[in-house]
Amino acid sequence: MHLKNIINFLGLWSYPFGISLSGLLLYFIQTMRMQEFTLDRENIIGIVIGGLIAPFFVMLSNFYDYFSKGKKEFTPNLTFKKNVTSISDSKRQAMYKKVEKSDSLLKNKPEGLILGKQGKKYVCLPVGKEGQKDGVSAVILGSPGSGKSVFLTNFLLNNYMQKNPTPVFCLDIKPELARKSINIAENKNVKVVDFTDRNKVGWDVYFSLNEDTTDDEKVRVFDGISRALIISSNPKDKFFVNNGRTILKFLLLYHFNKGLGFIDSITNVMSEDVGTHVKNVLSDKEFCPENSLIYSGLKKYDGKDSEAMQDIELTLQEHLNIFLNSDVRYQLRENSVKACPEDINDGISIFITQPMYLLEEFEDILRLITFQVISTMEKRGEDWKQPVVLILDELARLGKLENLLSFLAVNRSLGVSVLMAFQDFSQIEKNYTKEEARTLMNLSEITYILSCKDRETTKVLSDLIGEYKEEKVSHNRSALLHCSTGKENISSEYRKIMDVADFQSLREKKEVILILYGKFFRIKQFRYFEDSTLSKRYQEVLVGNQKLEKI
């Protein structure tokens, strides 16, 4: 037993109560005898000895529970409630399942993806390590302030301490991950894209296009751009979304063939109403002949009902307005230094930094960039030479990524690991259906839970973790002296290993739930600022980046 458990077993917690009761009894006895009550030596000794009666009866009760029921954990009954229910050790054993040596996760030092600690050992998965055979997918769940960013920083700090760090694509929402994990001035293989800072790197939307690109290849690129930008979580908007995508796709193709870049093409699309713009494009016989893809794609919208076209136009404007922002236009057009998805395959990490308060305003751009990165990673093939890690922080707030689920079905063989962080599945279900949310979880080998308050999410997780067989002992307690009295009922039943309250207490206990390849573990949370090596590196990175910000 631990010292605290021994103190509880001996009932020493009840000694102050015993002294108070002993003093009151002695006072009443002497008052009844018409004697003056004074705290002399004799009375003090009597009170001190009399106070031991309460711990004595508590200890007797605990002795009985220990020998008759095998109870090993003891806590003070400060509420003095009757009908106290004693739970056997089976729940604790089921809930705190340890990582075994055979799981190949226990390491002597932090490496790869640091999942937590067990005793003095680190629980790690070889994500991004040399020799890694496959990618992994991980869902990181946690309410605000529970440690999602800390978990991601753990990996990033450790990654960039290596001689050959794994290239990373990271949505850095706040932003803080880049600032805390990598010395940007020293590392030439990192690009930081920021649409609110013209001194940072821009983004090349048309990175995969050139003069030799075929029309079919162009259509695929513009189709991806339109699917990334034009979305809706409302099924009733499907008509306007699909038609908006089609119109945007062929208008982008038309303007690209005329030599315009992405921003100038979007400017032209928004410069006049959609119906008029389509009509003008169809009348351009040089770049839109009747036998062209553009003509075939747009002809059905010529002279279409004005009310329907107005709704389509509103759908387009909703998602394209952000490209009228002057800083965005600069970063996508004038900036001479741009990042693109191919950089990642070339060993260059990309951080897309965005202040949290601007996330809703910029979500269309972030979704477009993420869509393009995923599409590029899908083309890597299985003969990849270097693993890649995608970190999608605040995934649920990006809107629906049309290519995410299909990518999660193949990313392992492509050597791409995907870390997806959000609060709970109620967030995801605002953009994806329940079936799609369940598919996302099923396609993720790792479910990492820092805390969870959403009842539906905890129910899904509880079902996934499973049940245990518990012996339940119910008996009455003396409301005064904690003694076991009366009949006892002993029964066995199957119960959930984790219930709602258990998930909510994780943050307070600094513990995490890990569901990995079908196995369940509950381990201590690992935090970089509590580790001597990573904490030292973190301080060095902060100082280096602070100097850069002052330049």
3D structure, described in words:
- The chain is α/β, with parallel strands linked by helices.
- The protein folds into 3 domains: 3-95 and 473-486, no CATH class; 102-200 and 337-455 and 503-550, P-loop containing nucleotide triphosphate hydrolases (Rossmann fold, 3-Layer(aba) Sandwich), CATH 3.40.50.300; 215-324, no CATH class.
- It has helices at residues 3-10, 15-32, 41-50, 53-69, 90-95, 148-159, 177-181, 215-229, 238-257, 262-270, 274-282, 293-298, 306-320, 326-334, 342-345, 359-377, 404-408, 425-428, 434-442, 455-465, 500-504, 506-509, 532-550; strands at residues 85-87, 106-107, 113-118, 121-125, 137-141, 168-174, 190-194, 202-203, 338-339, 349-355, 388-393, 416-422, 446-449, 467-477, 484-496, 511-516, 519-524.
- It has a 9-stranded mixed beta sheet with strand order 7-10-6-11-12-5-13-16-17, sandwiched between helices. A 3-stranded antiparallel beta sheet has the order 1-14-15. Strands 2-4-3 form a 3-stranded antiparallel beta sheet.
- Strand 11 (388-393), helix 17 and strand 12 (416-422) form a beta-alpha-beta unit.
- Helix 8 crosses helix 9, helix 8 (215-229) packs antiparallel against helix 16 (359-377) and helix 9 (238-257) packs across helix 13.
- The longest helix has 20 residues, at 238-257.
- It is elongated, with a radius of gyration of 32 Å.
